[in-house]
Design a protein that fits this description.
Blueprint: H1 8-20, H2 23-30, H3 34-48, E1 53-56, E2 59-62, H4 64-88, E3 94-100, H5 105-119, E4 123-129, H6 132-140, E5 146-150, E6 159-166, E7 168-172, E8 186-191, H7 196-207, E9 212-218, H8 221-229, E10 235-237, E11 246-248, E12 257-264, H9 271-289
Parallel strand pairs: 3-4, 3-5, 8-9
Antiparallel strand pairs: 1-2, 5-12, 6-12, 7-10, 7-11
Length: 295
């Protein structure tokens, strides 16, 4: 029995079409005509042994088999692209100093930086977790090459806007939330001031005329997560990095979105810094788009 080999170019077109919500847009991204893309998709369905797409309104949606194939397609493309990076960057060497928010520590350290290390074994990466103000201060002093920070309105000279993420109310998964009252105000577990999320929470509650109190403060996000898990209060962050023991809360006052920026210390960074910047930006844009990202 023969086993057909999936064409990576075809899989790349499939992924692009789903991410962009249009195979006409995907044709532009992959540099092919719409007729060529249609031929690719027919070839893919032959290789898959059945339909991977179905009509949905004016567009196309994945069939159950297509959803399974999409996951494998992303993994195959990631391996292919990592192999290319390794071969192209085998001689890349130097160092890069990265600062980031705690929210992104686990995802970036475990995925992007691990993959970067495999691709560039002669590059030394120094990473540190810190609050927004500290990250920007270290960047201005040229103690960091890259800094991933929430947008607090401060203008920096070399900044890439990665995207915007909605702020969310977060509470313990199994704790009940009693309606707040003057006698029992809503308890908040927050990072120490100054904190953009803390300011957003207080402003939203004040607009809604909901009584509140700061029940717990911590210099670290890990401390806030632990306090929320213990039922000491609710907090406000994005949905990124929320522990499994916590949940996003509905029915709370509306919160704004917050910008996420990747700052660079130099206008013309080294090749090492450029490479890591590119990987982080791609990873985070997948995260902002709301789908799992892998290094």
């Amino acid at each position: 029995m023969s086993h057909p080999t999936f064409d990576l170019d075809v899989l790349r077109t499939l992924v692009a079409g789903i991410e962009l919500g249009s195979f006409a847009k995907a044709a532009d991204r992959v540099g092919r005509s719409t007729a060529a893309v249609s031929a690719q998709l027919k070839k893919l369905e032959q290789q898959a042994g059945g339909p991977v797409l179905r009509k949905s309104g004016r567009g196309m949606a994945l069939t159950p088999a297509g959803e399974v194939l999409l996951g494998y397609a992303r993994r195959l493309l990631e391996l292919n692209d990592e192999a290319q990076r390794v071969l192209r960057g085998a001689d890349l060497q130097g160092e890069v100093r990265l600062g980031l928010q705690e929210d992104f520590g686990e995802g970036l350290l475990a995925r992007v930086l691990a993959g970067f290390g495999r691709a560039h074994p002669r590059v030394r990466v120094e990473a540190q977790l810190a609050r927004n103000s500290e990250l920007l201060k270290q960047l201005e002093r040229h103690r960091l090459d890259l800094a991933l920070a929430w947008n607090g309105g401060k203008r920096m000279p070399h900044t890439t806007r990665v995207g915007r993420l909605p702020l969310r109310w977060i509470g313990a998964r199994h704790a009940s939330l009693a309606p707040p009252s003057p006698a029992e105000p809503l308890s908040l577990a927050m990072l120490e001031a100054p904190c953009l999320m803390r300011d957003a929470a207080v402003a939203a509650l004040s607009r809604a005329r909901i009584p509140w109190r700061i029940a717990f403060t911590s210099p670290s996000l890990a401390g806030v997560w632990a306090a929320v898990d213990a039922g000491l209060g609710v907090t406000v962050r994005t949905a990124i990095g929320v522990p499994a023991s916590l949940r996003l809360l509905d029915g709370m006052p509306a919160l704004p979105a917050i910008g996420l920026d990747l700052h660079r210390a130099e206008a013309s960074p080294t090749a090492v810094v450029q490479q890591l910047e590119s990987l982080i930006t791609a990873h985070l844009r997948e995260v902002v788009a709301g789908r799992p990202a892998h290094a």
